[in-house]
Each structure stands twice: as C-alpha cells, then as structure tokens.
C-alpha cells in the first residue's frame, strides 16, 4: 500500500466507518413546485432543533423559455438553487419538521447578493446567531463569481440582519480566453479558488471561527485545471476579517462541506468528486486531513446535528444524525427535497446496525437514469471521443505545486498524480445494461460471472446458479454480448466462483468447491477442470492443493510467460477479513508457487484484474476498508491506490482482450458482465441476475459519456431503498435514546468580544 496513505483497519474495528441510513422527513420533504436543499448543520436550542436551508419557489420552471443565460429574468431560475433565499424549520425529534418561514433575504437587486443566496450554515457564538451563505449577483452567468455573505440575529428565530458586504471572496483571478464571451475557457489559470466559493461551514476551534468552504477555479472544465477542493479561513469575530489558510486547498476531493469535532481534531465527510470521494477524513490540526475510512453512499450536502460544534472543544464527541438533500441531479425532477440520515459516528455511544460494509446496489439503482448505458454507449463507433483541439495553457500551480502544501495536496501528487477524475486514466463511471437470454427460474440466482472470452465468433461466460438445493456452474454464449444462449446442462454441481483460462490450446475452468457438514459449509477449495473447447466436454475436478481453509474467487491472467492465479483466502467463511494472494505456475493444473509472501490486497470479496499499460489494474468492490477503489501494480503484486470509483461492478467478469497473451502493454477493458440484485414480482425475496457493465478503462479508444464534472448521482431509490433505509426499529431506538442523550448546543463565550453591529 502507498507509504503516504496509511493502512486502514477493518471496517468493524474502525470508529470512522459507518453505513449511512436514510428516511423521509415530514414538513420539509418533497413538495411539488418547491425546492429545499443544502441544509445547514442543526442547532438544538431549548430542546428544539433548528435547520436552515436553501429554498426556491418560482413561477416558472428551470430555464423555461430561456435559450441563453443572457435572456434571464427575475421569474425564471437558471439552476435549481437560483432565485433562492434561506428558510428555516424546527422539530422536536428530527423527523417531523415545521417550516417557519424565511430567515435571510436576498440583498437589493443590484447588489452582490441580489440574485441568489443559498447553501447556508449557522454559527452560535457569544450571545448571537450567524448565517453564512453563498451569494450570487445578477445576472447569473457561467463566469459569475460567487462570494460568502452573512446575516445575524439575537435569536435562532430571527429577525435576521444582513451584513452589507461579502465576508469571503474568490482568490486571485486568471484570464478568460475570450473576454467578451461567457464560456469557461481561460488563457491564464488563477488560484485554486479563483472562480467561485461555495458551501460555507463553520466550527469554533482554538478560540477562533473556522470557516470551511468549497473552492472552484476558473477554467475548471479544462484538462489542466485544478479540481474541486475545500479551503479554510480564520477569524476572531463572526463578521471577520477572515484570513485564508496558506495551506489551502486542504482536501483534494469532496463537494458540499461537512465537518465535526472528533476528539482533539476535526473529521470530515467527503462526497461525490475527486480521487478520494466517498470517504471520511481526519485532521488532528483541522487542516492536514488523512483518509481514515471509505464509504458507500454518504449523505449529499450533509448538515449534521453536532452539539459541540461551537464549544471550542478538544474532546469532540462526533455525530449520530442530520439532514441531507436529494437534489435535482438525483431525482431528475424540477425540485430538490430534504431527507434525514442516521449513522454511527459518535465516540461515546455506539449504534447497532450501522457496520454493514457489504452493501451493493440493486437493479433499481444500476438501471436508473445516470447509471444505465444507452444503446449508443454500447457502440464503439459512436463513442470514440472527439478530442478538443484547443491548446490549453499549462497550470504550474496544479502540475508543479510549490511552497507549503497540505497533506491532502501532497497525496494528490504523490499517489494520484492528478487533481481531477478526468485526468486519471484509471477513473471511469460504470454503466449498466440489461441482458436477455437468461430465463427466469423460480428461486434461482445467477452470480459471479467469469471473465468473458471470445472464441470462434462467439462470446462465452461461466457463472454459478444457486437455489435452496445447492449450486451449479453453467455456461452461456452470445454473438453480441447482449443476447445470450444458456447451455441447459450444468457443468458441475456444488461449486461456485468460476473463472476461465486459455493455455496451450486448451481451456481450464477454475471453480470453488464447497465442503459441507450438517448442511453448513466448513471448507472451500479451488479446483480446475480441463476441456479442448469452451463448450466441453469437461474433465474431472483436480485439486490445486492450496493450503488455506477457505479459498475463493480464483482469477487467472497470463503474464511474463506464466499463469498468475489471484484468489482470496480467509480463516473464516463470509468475513470481511479477506486477503488476496497471487501464485504462479507454468502449468494450468499446477503446482503453484508464491511470488510474494504478502497479501496483494486486503479489500474486496470479489476483485477483478486486467493488464493495463505496463502493469496490472485491480478493482475492489463493496467489501473491506478499501472498497470501491482502483489499484495499480507494475509488478503484479505490489498494488497502490489510484483513486475511488462509484458503483463498480459486483463480482465483475470483464472481457480482457489480452488476458492470455503475454502482453507487455495492457490494453485495458471496456465491458463485461456482473451480478445485481433484483426482485421478481412473484417473489418476496430477491434473486441475483447477470447484467452487462460498460466502462472507459481501455487504452486504444477513449469513450464519451463515462465522465462528467459533477460525478454521477444515485437515484432516490438508492437512499430510500431496502438496503439503506432507516428501519422502524432503529427509528424507535433512536427516539428513545436521544430523549436522554441529546444535549443543547454548547456555545463558546469569548472573553473579549465587541462586534461592529453593537457599535
């Protein structure tokens, strides 16, 4: 593992790991024609919870009747958060909310905050309350700079008084290529936050106000631009002046800001964008963040309830719950709405049911709007990327940073070598497409497809088919990779996890055999079968003679003239504590010998590998501390983290063109098969189906549609589906517990404080 990236403990032993669970809220949830999004952190004052949020209710829909931004008016929003103001709501339990009305108003139409104020956070400091928010002037153009504004009140219910100037502005500008246009192309790059600053988030630490924010550079859509990151600025007073840290940016990833005191330091929830997306990070000093946990489906725009956020504490307790939003990007509707999240990120009390780390996405999610592959995206000719011929300027601050750097920026250049996902040749979105030809069989699941191979004009795949009576290995073939014909006869029973090898003109099928005692699996071992053809007949099982009790998921590549057998092993069956090993042999049936005494990976129950450039890529799925991660190794066994992925294939079986060719320059992959959970109408329980995945991990063609700047979004069904929804039992237990354990906000009282408003 990378020296600068610390090894992570198992998820079960990691206090920073949690599964997030979601639930609908009453009063500020979905409402036709009304947008509610970007919740602040939550106050608790006199046993009442307060939340502040972006709210929009406009006569017209987004861009209704507007072709160009220059045509905008005061009735038609150009984005979901345009023409919005800050509203607030209260609650006694965090589930049932009462919308109270507007908190902070926009400024005069001609002012710096006249068009929009949004993405608020709240500060309790001394005897007053402060709302910090993103502000936009009219007209809202692509090149519009965003600033941070503020309003203050003596009560969380207001009235709120507008501060008449911005508290924080973007950094030093670069130069737009076309001075009279409105595109985002630059001839000179500016600072990392030269264009916009968003999402203010405040805590009190070391007797000062720490204002965290998200920065976006000019020319962000260009290849050599920096990416989205977070910065921090400090002030002794709520109204400033705020001084930006010299170590900014302090994260290399993340979208909306979310942080909370943890022990003597600060923890953050990093979502959506960048090479360390979907993670929790921790900084003892509040600035130099290290990655401490990888997550699946963290809350978008999280606003947690954090009782000690303003207490100047060195003993931060963490968080249990908060609010988030499902934005227009997720719902594909005109309006966003708020939901609740629950988690187990509290140092004092632990919650049961939040440590499940083997949670994938089902059919409703994988075949939703953002993640389904279109017919065009399966056609290579349509998807050859058109390269932008504009000669982009160099960005020395990004390519060769100098001076003091935050730990996150150092990781960016020493591990990932890039600042944005689209600069990383090992980043891709995964898209999915339904298959035909696998008939429904009552109670049968099709799982763990092998690599796909091409032989004599046909594609071939092997997989296990499981029901209550046991498992069997089956085979299917296809002319196009979409419509499959399943071989009726099973190849072998009581075996799972097949993979295929072509070696010296023959085909070898590697499978995992189960040993049962009292109908329980007590041991699993890897065996191999041989055939002159993908269609069989297959010979007898041969034990490879490997020594561990539980061996699973064999995966075969040919490299350096040898057969490389990757597999996972564990001391106990179905545990996250798996180790991936690799053995080599010059014969398909062995003997196999160690090439490295160390595990090659410690995450991913099913991992797939493929040659890429001068090495091997590994993609780990939903299990283990490095879930949803892409790795690279030049020698095939020392793997290094290269970035994070969203919704990678479960039990992926890719088509690897050079899997068996002794290649020195790997081509990569563009598609394969995987498994996904699905519900049949006649079944109360789920089954697994095979599904096709598409990606952009090939060297010879660059495919369009597999990257977008704001990353790919999950639909509402992901958050409120069966795997991530807060159960009624968990809700009841939370209400019972928080009645006695939730405390009101601890507010720092400065010893010397005189503000300008009181003068």
Can you put this structure into words, describing what you see?
The chain has 759 residues and is mainly β. It folds into two domains: 360 residues, Tachylectin-2, Chain A, CATH 2.115.10.20; 273 residues, Tachylectin-2, Chain A (5 Propeller). The protein has six helices and 45 strands. Strands 1, 17, 18, 19, 20, 21, 22 and 23 form an eight-stranded antiparallel sheet that branches. Strands 24, 39, 40, 41, 42, 43, 44 and 45 form an eight-stranded antiparallel sheet that branches. Strands 25, 26, 27, 28, 29 and 30 form a six-stranded antiparallel sheet that branches. The termini are far apart. The relative contact order is 0.13.
Number of strands: 45
**Taking all residues together, what is the mean pLDDT?**
89
- The CATH superfamily of the largest domain is Glycosyl hydrolase domain, family 43
Shape summary? globular
Total domain units: 2
Q: According to CATH, what is the topology of the largest domain?
A: Tachylectin-2, Chain A
End-to-end separation: 57 Å
Number of helices: 6
Low-confidence stretches: 380-390, 752-759
**Rounded to an integer, what's the Rg over CA atoms?**
27 Å
- The CATH class of the largest domain is identified as Mainly Beta
Q: Mind telling me which CATH architecture of the largest domain this is? A: 5 Propeller
| Helix-strand makeup class | mainly beta
Strand fraction: 35-45%
Bin the helical content: under 10%
């Amino acid at each position: 593992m990378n020296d600068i990236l610390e090894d992570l403990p198992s998820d079960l032993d990691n206090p920073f790991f949690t599964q997030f669970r979601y639930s609908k809220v009453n009063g500020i949830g979905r409402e036709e024609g009304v947008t509610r999004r970007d919740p602040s952190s939550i106050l608790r004052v006199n046993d009442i919870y307060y939340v502040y949020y972006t709210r929009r209710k406009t006569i017209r829909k987004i861009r209704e009747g507007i072709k160009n931004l220059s045509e905008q008016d005061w009735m038609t929003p150009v984005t979901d958060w345009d023409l919005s103001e800050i509203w607030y709501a209260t609650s006694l339990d965090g589930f049932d909310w009462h919308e109270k009305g507007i908190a902070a108003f926009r400024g005069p139409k001609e002012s710096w905050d006249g068009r929009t104020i949004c993405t608020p956070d709240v500060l309790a400091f001394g005897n007053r309350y402060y709302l910090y928010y993103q502000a936009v002037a009219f007209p809202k153009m692509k090149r519009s700079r965003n600033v941070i504004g503020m309003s203050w009140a003596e009560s969380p219910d207001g009235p709120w008084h507008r501060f008449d100037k911005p508290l924080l502005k973007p950094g030093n500008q670069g130069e737009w290529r076309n001075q009279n246009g409105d595109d985002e192309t630059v001839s000179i790059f500016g600072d990392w936050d030269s264009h916009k600053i968003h999402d203010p988030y405040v805590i009190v630490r070391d007797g000062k106000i720490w204002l965290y924010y998200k920065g976006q550079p000019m020319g962000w859509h260009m290849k050599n631009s920096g990416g989205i990151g977070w910065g921090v600025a400090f002030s002794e007073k709520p109204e400033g002046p705020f001084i930006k840290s010299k170590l900014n940016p302090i994260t290399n990833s993340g979208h909306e800001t979310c942080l909370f005191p943890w022990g003597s330091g600060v923890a953050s929830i990093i979502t959506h964008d960048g090479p360390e997306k979907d993670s929790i990070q921790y900084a003892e000093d509040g600035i130099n963040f290290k990655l401490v946990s990888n997550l699946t489906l963290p809350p978008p725009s999280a606003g947690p309830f954090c009782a000690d956020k303003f207490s100047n504490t060195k003993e931060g307790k963490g968080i249990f719950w908060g609010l988030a939003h499902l934005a227009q990007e997720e719902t594909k509707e005109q309006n966003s709405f708020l939901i609740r999240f629950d988690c187990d990120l509290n140092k004092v009390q632990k919650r049961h049911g939040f440590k499940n780390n083997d949670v994938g996405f089902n059919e409703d999610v994988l075949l939703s709007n953002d993640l389904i592959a279109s017919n065009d995206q399966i056609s290579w000719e349509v998807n050859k990327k058109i390269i932008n011929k504009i000669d982009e300027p160099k960005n020395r601050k990004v390519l060769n940073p100098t001076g003091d750097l935050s730990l996150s920026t150092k990781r960016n250049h020493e591990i990932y070598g890039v600042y944005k996902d689209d600069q990383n040749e090992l980043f891709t979105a995964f898209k999915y497409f339904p298959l035909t030809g696998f008939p429904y069989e009552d109670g049968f699941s099709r799982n763990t497809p092998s690599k796909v191979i091409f032989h004599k004009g046909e594609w071939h795949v092997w997989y296990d088919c499981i029901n209550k009576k046991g498992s069997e290995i089956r085979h299917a073939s296809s002319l196009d990779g979409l419509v499959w014909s399943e071989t009726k006869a099973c190849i072998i029973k009581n075996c799972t996890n097949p993979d295929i090898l072509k070696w010296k003109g023959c085909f070898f099928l590697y499978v995992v055999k189960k040993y049962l005692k009292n109908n329980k699996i007590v041991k699993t071992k890897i065996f191999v079968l041989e055939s002159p053809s993908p269609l069989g007949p297959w010979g007898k099982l041969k034990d490879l003679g490997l020594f561990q009790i539980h061996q699973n998921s064999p995966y075969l590549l040919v490299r350096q003239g040898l057969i490389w057998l990757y597999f996972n092993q564990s001391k106990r069956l179905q545990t996250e504590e798996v180790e991936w090993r690799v053995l080599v042999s010059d014969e398909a049936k062995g003997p196999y010998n160690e090439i490295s005494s160390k595990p090659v990976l410690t995450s991913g129950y099913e991992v797939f590998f493929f040659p890429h450039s001068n090495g091997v890529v590994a993609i780990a799925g939903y299990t283990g501390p490095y879930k949803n991660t892409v790795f690279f190794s030049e020698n095939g066994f020392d793997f290094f983290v290269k970035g994070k992925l969203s919704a990678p294939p479960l039990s992926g079986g890719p088509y690897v063109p050079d899997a068996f060719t002794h290649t020195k320059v790997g081509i990569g992959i563009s598609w394969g098969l995987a498994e996904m959970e699905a519900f049949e109408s006649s079944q109360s329980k789920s089954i697994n189906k095979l599904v096709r995945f598409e990606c952009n991990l090939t060297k010879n063609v660059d495919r369009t549609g597999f990257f977008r700047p704001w990353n790919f979004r999950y639909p509402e069904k992901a958050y409120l589906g069966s795997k991530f929804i807060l159960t009624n039992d968990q809700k009841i237990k939370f209400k019972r517990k928080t009645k006695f354990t939730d405390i009101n906000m601890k507010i720092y009282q400065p010893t010397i404080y005189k503000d300008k408003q009181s003068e």
